Amino acid sequence: MLMESQLQLTDNHNSVKFRPTSRENNVEFIINQASCSPCSVFGLCSHGDKDHSSSWHAGHPGVQSSTLHKGEYLFRQGDKLLNIYVIRSGGVKLLFIAPDGTEQILNFYLRGEVLSLGDIEAGVHSCSAIALETTSICKLPYDKLQSVCQREPRLYDQLFRMASKEIAYEQTKMVLLGQRQSEERFATFILDLASRNRKNGYSQREFNLTMSRHDIANYLCLADETVSRLMSKFCTDGLLEVNKRSVRISDIGKLSEKAGVAAPLQSACVN
Amino acid sequence: MLMESQLQLTDNHNSVKFRPTSRENNVEFIINQASCSPCSVFGLCSHGDKDHSSSWHAGHPGVQSSTLHKGEYLFRQGDKLLNIYVIRSGGVKLLFIAPDGTEQILNFYLRGEVLSLGDIEAGVHSCSAIALETTSICKLPYDKLQSVCQREPRLYDQLFRMASKEIAYEQTKMVLLGQRQSEERFATFILDLASRNRKNGYSQREFNLTMSRHDIANYLCLADETVSRLMSKFCTDGLLEVNKRSVRISDIGKLSEKAGVAAPLQSACVN
DNA sequence: CGTCGCCTTGATGAACATCAAGGAAAGTGG
DNA sequence: CCACTTTCCTTGATGTTCATCAAGGCGACG
Question: Of the residues A164, A200, A224, B195, which has the maximum number of CB atoms within 10 A of its CB?
């Protein structure tokens, strides 16, 4: 079935997703998994592509990577949407600030994840994206991406599925925040981070929080102090070992139990 | 600019969006605004198309409309995703039920709005959709839609933008639920309904709630009793006149004030 | 007329926010 | 290198919003 083959297209990270047809000789779709694995979701960003000197990347100077330091803005609320962004390493938080100054962190985007899909329709960034640590980003100019998509609809398909996944992620989060209380929220959050870490080939048991307590609290719609207390509690209960920003999951079973039936968050736009 | 012209493509509801090219003679893209305005978002559903007897609709028997009565399921959590749905009239609620039985209403979809974009990637419905009243639906088989999209990428563009809009909607809701308390949530909800009503050519000051108090409460992550109290309070405060399910906004200024700076919800997928 | 679902209103309670104080680490400037 | 501030975090005490519990009203419908 078409749908299943396409699911695989998206799910199998290691497969070559696009072969250039005769029409697209000037734009390379070949993925260079080794040099650009986080971006491979698009099959677009071909840094260091060995076989194709005139890669999409080289041939379209608009596509560029850049590096942000902690606290720097990738884009600001109100900016015109020009690019879709892929995190190559590091991470950012997506922050909405209301006219009265209240803030809401809507998401964290880590390695391999894609931002700003929600702002395409409006054409304007509804939130700011701020680096949590030193972060490397790949920018895909949306107008160019779009024109490539016009010629290669399978690429559009992937883009669309990423948007679909982000919707599903938001919905899962809504369930978490709407129905679950602080312990379940926090446990789910830690497990989500662990699983995202694992997807990137790192340890799922031990990692550093790149975000502050305040960020976590705000994201989970809790007070900072509540998160602090939860960390202490989870430590004394033998679920976690926390030292500053470093976290080790001591008992993943108990932690999952705390997270309860809350459907695990599916990390946004990891393909 | 490309982007702007395409924004208009999506925003101008009355324009003809697709002209069949020579390649797509067997599939009609002409919109029949008069007979099928809610579905016109796709430029696909051409019920009663006068000029083209062999319409997309007729030529692809998979595309069908159907009618649901109050309480009936459009699809169930766990069902395979086969269609994208457009509400022609009436409305549905999107309901997630956790393993422990807790429920969360994720959204209400009313006339002209599109469901199930969030389930495309997974290929399975993560929630159930249940009719709030007698509801007429247009089903677009996703596999067929997709193959048309492959040939007509501008259609894919529209689909993608709808997904983008849905993401933005979810994010706005997250801000509302994360940062605002009950009065602001409820006021915002009423104003959102009013604005969606207006978009459909009905009165924005006076309308019927098609959902129960329980549904509203659950959607806003409040207790039923809290919503009940808010209604009473808003009535005595002269903001609303409520009689059973009928609502009249007495003072839209004060109501907006109550809603506060909470960014107005942008109704999902109304194009 | 009685039952049922839906809604309203009041009384109580709990989860979490807020307020407050202080500690530890990191940056800053001398 | 050391005072100094600042930021971030922790922990305790108190307060508030809203959930929960409970009782009853009201219309619908058989």
Answer: A164
Query: Is there a contact between A118 and B260 if contact means CB atoms under 8 Å apart?
Result: no
Q: What are phi and psi of B67, to 5 degrees?
A: -120, 135
Residues of chain A found within 8 Å of residue B117, distances taken between Cβ atoms: 163-164, 167
Asked if pLDDT for residue A96 goes beyond 90, the answer is yes
Q: Whole-number Å distance, CA A225 to C1' D12?
A: 11
> Which two three-digit tokens encode residue B44?
């696909």
The alpha-carbon gap from A263 to the nearest alpha carbon of chain B, in Å, equals 8
Q: Do the Cβ atoms of B165 and A127 come within 8 Å?
A: no
Confidence of residue A170 (pLDDT cuts 50, 70, 90): very high
Q: What is the DSSP string of A174-222?
A: HHHHHH--HHHHHHHHHHHHHHHHHHTTS-SSEEE--S-HHHHHHHTT-
Across the interface, whether the CB atoms of A163 and B165 are under 8 A apart is answered: no
Cα–Cα dist A117/A103, whole Å: 20
- Report which secondary-structure segment, H or E, holds A246: strand A246-249
Q: Which residue has the higher pLDDT, A12 or B81?
A: B81
Residue in the block written with tokens 């495309």 = B120
How many Å apart are CA B104 and CA B127, to the nearest integer?
Answer: 9
Residue (of B75, B25, B148) closest to A157 by Cα position: B148
Instruction: Supply A254's token pair.
Output: 């108990």
**Tell me, in Å, how far CA of B248 is from C1' of D12?**
48
Q: Kindly list the residues from chain B whose CB atom is less than 8 angstroms away from the CB atom of residue A178.
A: 104, 177, 218, 221
DSSP sequence for A122-162: TTB-SSEEEESSSEEEEEEEHHHHHHHHHH-HHHHHHHHHH
Is the separation of the CB atoms in B90 and B131 below 8 Å? yes
Q: Minimal CA–CA distance to A57: which of A77, A40, A71, A74? A: A40
**B50-68: pLDDT as tens digits:** 333 333 443 444 567 889 9
Extract the tokens encoding A219.
Answer: 């994201």
User: What does the angle CA A71 – CA A68 – CA A83 come to, to the nearest 5 degrees?
Assistant: 110
Q: Which has the closest alpha carbon to B102: A235, A97, A113, A260?
A: A260
Give pLDDT tens digits for A131-150.
Answer: 999 999 989 899 888 888 88
Inter-chain touch A106–B175, beta carbons under 8 Å? yes
Give residue B53's identity as a one-letter amino acid code: S
- B98: which chain A residues are within 8 Å (Cβ-Cβ)? 175, 179, 261-263
Strand D atom within 7 Å of B181 CB:
yes
Pairing status of strand B114-115 against strand B240-243: unpaired
Question: What CA–CA distance (Å, rounded) separates A129 from A96?
Answer: 9
- Give, in degrees to the nearest 5, the angle at Cα B122 between A93 and A132: 10
